[in-house]
TrEMBL record:
Leader peptide range in chain numbering: none
Name used for this protein in its record: Mitochondrial import receptor subunit TOM9-2
Single GO cellular component term: mitochondrial outer membrane
Organism from which the protein derives: Populus tomentosa (Chinese white poplar)
Family label: Belongs to the Tom22 family.
């Protein structure tokens, strides 16, 4: 039995010039190591950091505004609606009893 077992597939030949130490880096390595690319990466990281902070604080502000609206404004809206219904009921009862409707005088 072989000391090294292989599982299916094929083996690729070694790349040429891999052993030479005088090989100069390819164009992608040169571009990746350039000052412009590293500055761009840093700017992108900074932009992502600021965006995350902004989203987090915006979410907190939305939560505060939403809960404040539920606690303060919704009961006020309900009470105003209830008052309006009560006024309409009073006007309806007055018209049934024969009292003159309260409102602007009829035009002449």
């Amino acid at each position: 039995m072989a000391s090294q077992s292989r599982r299916g597939g094929i083996s690729l030949p070694e790349r040429r010039g891999r052993g030479s130490s005088k090989q100069e880096p390819n164009i992608l390595v040169k571009i990746n190591n350039s000052q412009i690319v590293s500055t761009g990466k840093q700017a992108a990281c900074d932009a992502v950091f600021v965006a995350k902070k902004l989203l987090k604080s915006t979410g907190k502000a939305a939560w505060i505004a939403g809960t404040t609206f539920l606690i303060l404004a919704v009961p006020l809206i309900i009470e105003m609606d209830r008052e309006q219904q009560l006024n309409e009921l009073d006007l309806q009862q007055q018209s049934l009893l024969g009292a003159p409707p309260v409102g602007p005088p009829p035009p002449k």
